[in-house]
Structure formats: structure tokens, C-alpha cells
């Protein structure tokens, strides 16, 4: 097997079975993240979807709840990233509130679906629903406190994730 093919096979294995991120895999195998993404996309076009293989591996080894927990964790990481962008962006406060409301709605929908698939994580869903309702309430009743909510939401989200991750 040629060296690039060997790297590609190892990258797939690390992604599917060890659940490493593309960035980590790229660093370990000394390839660019775009090369990893290209390999993954090319494999999918040829019928080898690495994401499906990864989920199947998790289900086989740990069950559906592990997959759902992984999805919830990934969503929370992305949500945190969005919150960081909102905090550091120069968009008007009204637009920030709209983004947060959309995020809260997405969190509610995602956790509702996750709770149906893996009832064990339903407590996280309840917590996220409370956060969503709080955001709606502040937006409607106390819009002048929006900046304070942005400041509080980040560490509170971290605390929720840590509490319900175990």
C-alpha cells in the first residue's frame, strides 16, 4: 500500500474507531485539515461514509445513548462557539438577540429529539429548555438586560454541560 493510502486508512480508523477530530487526525498524520476533509468527502462519494461508520461503531460498542450523547456534546460545543462569536462580533444587539433566540430554539428541538432516543439525557434537555425560556423572557420583558445575559450564559452553559456530561 502506498504511503498516502496508508495514511488515509489510518486517518479513517482514527476517525471511526477512536473518535478523533479531523484537526487532531491531520496533526497526527502530518496532513492538512483540508486533505482530511477531502479524503472523507471522496470516501463518501465512493459509498464509504465515515460518519455513518463512526456512528455504527459507537452503537455497536456503546449503544444508541452514546451516539446521542456524542451528538448533544457536539451541539453544545458548536453552541458555545456561536455564543463566543456573538460576544466578539460587532453586530447590533438586536441581531445578537435573534441569534441567541434561534440557538435556544435549536437547543430545545435537538434535546427533545435526543430525549426521545436516549431518555437518560433528558435532564439536559430540561435544563436547556429552561435556558431557552429564560432567553425568550428576557428578550420580551427586559431587552435592556441582553448584554448581561450574554455575559452570564457562557459560564452557565459550561456548568450545565459539565453537570450533565457524567
Structure description:
The chain has 166 residues and is an all-alpha fold. The chain is 83% helix and 0% strand. It has helices at residues 3-16, 22-29, 33-45, 50-62, 64-88, 93-117, 122-141, 146-165. The radius of gyration is 19 Å and the shape is elongated.
Instruction: Tell me what portion of residues adopts beta-strand conformation.
Output: under 5%
Low-confidence stretches: none
Helix content: over 70%
Number of domains: 2
Shape designation: elongated
| Helix vs. strand class | mainly alpha
Q: How many β-strand runs?
A: 0
Put simply, the count of helices is 8
Rg from C-alpha positions?
19 Å
If you average the pLDDT, what whole number results? Answer: 80
Helix-strand topology string: HHHHHHHH
Distance from first to last alpha carbon: 42 Å
Oligomer: single chain
Gist of the model:
The chain is an all-alpha fold. It folds into 2 domains: 3-55; 63-165, no CATH class.
Task: Show the helix and strand layout.
Elements: H1 3-16, H2 22-29, H3 33-45, H4 50-62, H5 64-88, H6 93-117, H7 122-141, H8 146-165
Helix pairs in contact: 1-2, 2-3, 4-5, 5-6, 5-8, 6-7, 7-8
List keywords for this structure.
166 residues; mainly alpha
Amino acid at each position: 500500500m502506498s504511503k498516502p493510502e496508508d495514511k488515509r486508512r489510518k486517518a479513517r480508523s482514527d476517525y471511526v474507531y477512536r473518535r478523533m477530530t479531523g484537526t487532531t487526525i491531520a496533526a497526527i498524520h502530518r496532513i492538512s485539515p483540508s486533505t482530511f476533509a477531502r479524503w472523507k468527502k471522496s470516501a463518501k462519494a465512493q459509498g464509504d461514509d465515515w460518519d455513518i461508520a463512526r456512528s455504527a461503531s459507537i452503537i455497536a460498542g456503546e449503544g444508541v445513548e452514546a451516539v446521542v450523547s456524542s451528538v448533544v456534546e457536539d451541539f453544545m460545543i458548536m453552541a458555545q462557539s456561536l455564543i463566543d462569536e456573538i460576544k466578539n462580533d460587532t453586530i447590533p444587539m438586536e441581531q445578537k438577540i435573534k441569534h441567541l433566540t434561534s440557538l435556544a430554539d435549536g437547543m430545545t428541538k435537538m434535546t427533545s429529539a435526543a430525549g426521545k432516543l436516549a431518555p437518560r439525557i433528558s435532564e439536559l434537555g430540561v435544563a436547556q429548555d429552561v435556558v431557552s425560556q429564560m432567553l425568550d423572557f428576557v428578550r420580551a420583558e427586559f431587552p435592556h438586560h441582553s448584554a448581561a445575559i450574554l455575559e452570564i450564559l457562557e459560564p452557565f452553559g459550561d456548568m450545565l454541560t459539565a453537570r450533565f456530561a457524567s
